[in-house]
């Protein structure tokens, strides 16, 4: 079996649909006749053709094209057909004598060579029009064919593979010499339709009227109709009300009578029927006709929803059917047809009565059990509450509703538990300790957080000791750091800017002006850690503090002569007068190097002269340059830790990188640009800048402070450097110029657009060639079609908008296109969004759990 095709949506717009559009046919069904004619060639030789059920006129168009000129073509349909050249049409019901008379009027005494019938009952429109089933329609068309066909003529009809099929073919066989059933390629596989081509009409002088009487032809099938009566639906017609979407069309054709009869059932029948599902699946409406049924309408159980559901069962969804069945159950209980459901309370009462009989011991046992259960439930509740609080706290943090600092202050935050008490409520901790010692701790496992557990485990430890306190604090700190990490992670996910900032920080591209900083700042490792104070101290120890003014002078004069950017030089290492850096001195000063000659760094240094200025605008740094002049200061021995800090082998590289970046990109912050401007205009000097570096922000001791606190400080606790209007304007102008430059992506997008346009045009050209090669079209028609194709090819195909329809209210349970919705649509479930979000949340939570 071939792959099932969709009969709705995109499946409908298949190759033949497009071909029909391209070739100007009104319906894709035109290709069915083309293909049938290709196989049996009945049109070319025909002089008169009757098309029964011809609207919108696809078959008529084909007939007019393939039949010789001046032939007679008559089309009939219930609905009017737009005029077609050389074709006579009228609107009529082919099952009526009026139609027969009209045909007679059109043909006069002519006989038709071909009678075509492609009729299908208009399911879902007027019930009257659907009074005949497909098979009956076929028999009616055969009746007309028998009357109007010439001897040897051809009758082509559509038949659905149903139980009637064989009977119909038998009748055809009685009237025609050759009867063949075929399914043209353009007929969809999903459709049960089949075409029967009856050739060589025998034109008997007398046709037994029974051959054309549905009652006789479909006689043995009448039982099915009886089966379809309300309340006793046949298994064939019964719909699976609980899984309507899974219902499949039977391969042997339409369900008989399923679309031709509008069935009603009395509410009484539904309530009393032993098989309510069958009733619901086979009727369209439940009515309240009798007095008894009308009485049910006023009952409380018969809600307005139930009444509305009864009105049209075909539009109901699963929930509505369930409601109807529940309603039926309630009514049956009321009517005494079913026993009332025994309620739980009744059982309880019963149990209580019995309890009086059981002896005291059992009662105590039960009481104990109850208490146990109660306490277990209480514990569970508390645990849940603690979890909720914890989740909320984290959520609030993620939503930036809580500063991380607040978490520590939330004394009742169960998630932080005992450790928190230790830090913020020492009395509480002491009391807990006492309780533990006295053995009066009445805390159950669940009453304690992680912290308290640990406290219990370390029961013997002295909680009041400083070490213990420190341990607790550090535990809390690490917990907070962990939470902060999670919070930052979230921030990073959400905020692209944050990512960029962090990246810059890591890359050592500090953009803000932070005053004079020590060398380590440049590494981006311990930014601000020692501040200007350390720098000053360092300079002092290095013995260059006294020479500052001197170097200032040099610096100033240099800045006077040249623009500041030229003056930017790689950072120099602080050197001792003997040419060895202080760090190297310390290193080689260790015992192990005793007696060895200390190498001179100046030899290897690429730097030229120590008096060079060291102004790094891009990084917002102005660093002092140690003078090489002799020192009047006593060198204070450094402790070992200092050594590590001062050892800055990569410092020069980083500075070089910064310098290169500035050279490449220029000054990128308004602060840096303003300072540069002031330097150029001699409004400030290097000395001033250095002095400005010693401010209240530079002398902060940041050791041991938590990361989140330092992050916050870095954002808000920093000097406010004045920026000039001109600097801002200049930077903006540069940014605008950058923005205006065509970027690679735009160029790529343009290229793609061009490429697609070329592709479209090429496709249109190919189609046009196809049209040109068709022999069926006149030159004029060809020209018109080619023009349309090329026009369409040149235009960009518009993306069709998809309308989203929520499957609730009136749309609930609807299959197929909802009312009033045109074009493409997507049916969505109202719950779906919530469920998808909940699933995402759960997945994320479980992932996180796995990670930790
Ligand atoms: C599939 S369409 C026919 C398409 C047509 N062969 C074409 O190519 O355009 C079926 C047609 O049967 C018509 N029909 C159904 N019952 C009819 C009846 N009793 N009398 C006349 N036409 C009827 C419908 O109005 C509908 O237009």
TrEMBL record:
One of its GO terms (molecular function) is rRNA (uridine-2'-O-)-methyltransferase activity. Residues 354-392 form a coiled coil. Residues 25-201 form the Ribosomal RNA methyltransferase FtsJ domain. Residues 458-468, 546-561, 600-615, 637-653 have a biased composition (Acidic residues). It is found in: Nucleus, Nucleolus. PANTHER family: PRE-RRNA 2'-O-RIBOSE RNA METHYLTRANSFERASE FTSJ3, RIBOSOMAL RNA METHYLTRANSFERASE. This is FtsJ-domain-containing protein. It comes from Coniophora puteana (strain RWD-64-598) (Brown rot fungus).
């Amino acid at each position: 079996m071939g792959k099932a095709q969709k009969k709705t949506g995109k499946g409908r717009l298949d190759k033949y649909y497009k071909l029909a559009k391209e070739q100007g046919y009104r319906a894709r069904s035109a290709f069915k006749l083309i293909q049938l004619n290709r196989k049996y060639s009945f049109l070319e030789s025909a002089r008169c053709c009757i098309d029964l059920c011809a609207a919108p006129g696809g078959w008529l168009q084909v007939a007019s094209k393939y039949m010789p000129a001046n032939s007679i073509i008559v089309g009939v349909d219930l609905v009017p057909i737009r005029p077609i050249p050389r074709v006579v049409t009228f609107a009529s019901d082919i099952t009526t004598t009026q139609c027969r008379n009209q045909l007679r009027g059109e043909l006069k005494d002519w006989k038709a060579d071909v009678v075509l019938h492609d009729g299908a009952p208009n399911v879902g429109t007027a019930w009257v029009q659907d009074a005949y089933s497909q098979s009956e329609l076929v028999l009616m068309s055969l009746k007309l064919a028998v009357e109007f066909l010439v001897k040897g003529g051809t009758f082509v009809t559509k038949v659905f593979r149903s139980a009637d099929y064989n009977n119909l073919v038998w009748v055809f066989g009685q009237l025609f010499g050759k009867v063949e059933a075929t399914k043209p390629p353009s007929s969809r596989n999903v459709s049960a339709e089949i075409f029967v081509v009856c050739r060589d009409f025998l034109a008997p002088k007398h046709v037994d009227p029974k051959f054309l009487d549905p009652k006789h032809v479909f006689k043995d099938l009448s039982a099915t109709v009886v089966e379809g009566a309300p309340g006793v639906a046949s298994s064939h017609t019964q719909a699976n009300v609980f899984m309507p979407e899974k219902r499949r069309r039977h391969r042997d054709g339409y369900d008989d009578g399923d679309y031709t009869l509008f069935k009603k059932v009395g509410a009484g029948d539904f309530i009393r029927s032993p098989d309510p599902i069958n009733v619901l699946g086979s009727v369209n409406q439940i009515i309240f006709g009798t007095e008894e049924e009308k009485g049910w309408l006023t009952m409380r159980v018969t809600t307005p929803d139930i009444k509305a559901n009864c009105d049209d069962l075909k539009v109901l969804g699963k929930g509505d059917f369930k409601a109807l069945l529940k309603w039926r159950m309630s009514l049956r209980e009321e009517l005494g047809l079913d026993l009332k459901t025994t309620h739980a309370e009744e059982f309880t009462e019963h149990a209580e009565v019995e309890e009086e009989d059981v002896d005291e011991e059992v009662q105590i046992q039960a009481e104990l059990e109850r208490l146990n259960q109660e306490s277990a439930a209480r514990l569970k509740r508390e645990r849940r509450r603690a979890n909720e609080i914890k989740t909320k706290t984290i959520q609030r943090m993620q939503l930036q509703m809580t500063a991380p600092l607040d978490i520590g202050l939330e004394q009742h935050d169960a998630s932080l538990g005992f450790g928190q008490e230790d830090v913020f409520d020492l009395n509480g901790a002491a009391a807990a300790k006492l309780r533990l010692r006295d053995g009066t701790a009445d805390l159950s496992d669940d009453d304690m957080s992680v912290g308290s557990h640990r406290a219990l485990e370390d029961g013997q430890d002295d909680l009041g000791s400083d070490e213990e306190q420190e341990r607790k604090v550090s535990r809390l700190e690490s917990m907070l750091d962990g939470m902060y990490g999670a919070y930052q992670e979230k921030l990073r996910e959400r905020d692209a800017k944050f990512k960029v900032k962090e990246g810059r920080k890591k890359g050592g591209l500090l953009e803000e002006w932070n005053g004079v900083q020590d060398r380590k700042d440049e590494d981006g490792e311990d930014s601000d850690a020692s501040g200007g104070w350390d720098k000053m101290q360092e300079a002092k120890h290095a013995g260059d503090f006294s020479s500052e003014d001197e170097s200032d002078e040099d610096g100033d004069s240099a800045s006077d002569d040249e623009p500041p950017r030229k003056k930017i030089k790689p950072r120099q290492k602080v050197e001792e007068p003997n040419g060895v850096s202080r760090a190297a001195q310390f290193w080689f000063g260790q015992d192990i190097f005793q007696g060895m000659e200390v190498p001179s760094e100046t030899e290897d240094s690429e730097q030229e002269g120590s008096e060079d200025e060291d102004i790094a605008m891009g990084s917002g740094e102005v660093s002092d340059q140690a003078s090489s002049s002799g020192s009047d200061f006593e060198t204070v021995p450094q402790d070992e830790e200092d050594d590590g800090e001062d050892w800055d082998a990569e410092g020069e590289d980083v500075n070089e990188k910064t310098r290169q970046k500035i050279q490449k990109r220029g000054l990128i912050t308004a602060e840096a640009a303003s300072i540069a401007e002031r330097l150029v205009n001699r409004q400030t000097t290097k000395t001033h800048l250095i002095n400005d570096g010693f401010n209240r922000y530079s002398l902060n001791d940041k050791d041991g402070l938590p990361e989140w606190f330092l992050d916050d400080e870095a954002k808000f606790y920093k000097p406010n450097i004045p920026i000039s209007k001109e600097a801002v304007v200049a930077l903006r102008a540069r940014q605008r110029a950058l923005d205006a430059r065509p970027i690679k992506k735009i160029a790529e997008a343009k290229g793609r657009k061009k490429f697609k346009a070329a592709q479209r045009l090429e496709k249109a050209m190919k189609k046009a060639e196809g049209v040109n090669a068709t022999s069926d079209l006149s030159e004029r028609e060809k020209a018109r079609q080619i023009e349309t194709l090329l026009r369409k090819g040149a235009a960009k195909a518009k993306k069709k908008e998809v309308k989203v329809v929520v499957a609730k209210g009136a749309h609930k349970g609807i299959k197929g296109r909802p009312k009033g919705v045109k074009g493409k649509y997507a049916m969505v479930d109202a719950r779906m969004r919530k469920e998808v979000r909940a699933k995402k949340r759960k997945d994320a939570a479980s992932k996180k759990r796995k990670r930790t």
